[in-house]
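Possible regression after last week's pipeline update?

I re-ran a chain I had predicted before the update to compare outputs. Posting the input and the new output here so someone can diff against the archived version. Not blocking, just want to make sure nothing changed silently.
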Amino acid sequence: MPQKENQYSPYIIFSKEEWSSLGFGTKLSLTEKEIKNLRGLNEPMSIEEVRDVYLPISSLLNLYISGTQKIFDATNVFLGKKNIKVPFIIGVAGSVAVGKSTTSRILKALLSKWSAHLNVSVVNTDGFLMSNKELEKKGLMARKGFPESYNISLLLDFLNNIKSGKNKITAPVYSHLLYDNVLGEYTEINNPDIVIIEGLNVLQPAPLPKNGNAIPYVSDFFDFSIFVDAKENDIQKWYIDRFLKLKETAFQEKNSYFNKYANLSKDNAVAIASNLWESINYKNLVENILPTRQRANLIIRKSANHSVDQISLRKL
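New output (post-update):
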C-alpha cells in the first residue's frame, strides 16, 4: 500500500518498493549496456533502478497516452474533423545536476519499446536560451537559466507547432562546450508521437492576465509532467562533483567556454564551483524551480546516492 499521506495532499506517495510492484509484470527491454550509454556524467544508473522506477513510469505514461488519444479523437468527432495525430508532450523539470537529462533519455528508450514504430524525441530547452551576446546586452549573463534568459516566444512557437501536428519542426541547438547556442544549427523533429521537453523552468506558470486574456506558457502544452527532486545539499554536491569531472575532461578542450578552469587545483575548483552554485544555480532553484514542483503530475525524489527513494503521483 502507498505510504500514509497528508489528507489534503494532491499526491499519492510511494516508496520505491511499492512503486516497483506497479509494473504489471512488464519485462525490461533495455540491456545493461544500453543503460550505461544513457547515463549522465558522474551519475550512476543501475539496471535494477530502471526496472523498479522507470519501467513502471513508462507503463503509466503508455496508459496516459492511450487515454489522451481517445479524448483527442472524441473532440475531433464532435468538431466533425478527421482524426489528427497530436503528439503527446511530457515535461521534465528540476534543478541543474539533478538528473533531468538521464531521466529523459531513459524514458525515451523505454517508451520507444512500447511500439515498433513509435517516434519519441527529446528536446532540451537550453537551445531556446538567448545567445550569450543577447544576454550580455541585456545584462543577464549572471542569470543564465533563469526564466527571463529564454526566448519564450520561440519556445512557444515550437510547442504550438508540435501540438498542431506539423512535420519537420526545428529546434535550436545548444553547445555545453561553447556555453552558447550553435549559430545556424538545428535539430529536426519529424512526425513525432511523443516529445519529451526537458528544462529547468518548464513548469513555471504564466502570470495572471489583468484583462482576462490568455497568456500561454510552456507547461500549457504538456500532457504529463515530471519533477526530478532531491535535497538541496545533495544537488550541490552532485554539481560540484560534476564540475570536478568536467575540469578533467570537457574543460580541457581549448574551445571550451570553461577552459579557464581546466588547470585549477582541486581546492580552487571546489571554491569556484561552490560560488557558481550559490550565486546562480541555487538562487534559481529556490526562486524559480522548486516552487513549481507541486505543479508536476509525478515527482521523483532521489537520495544522496542518486537512487530514487520516493515517487509521488498526482491524484487530483
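Follow-up from reviewer: compared with the archived run. The longest strand covers residues 180-189. Marking as no regression found.
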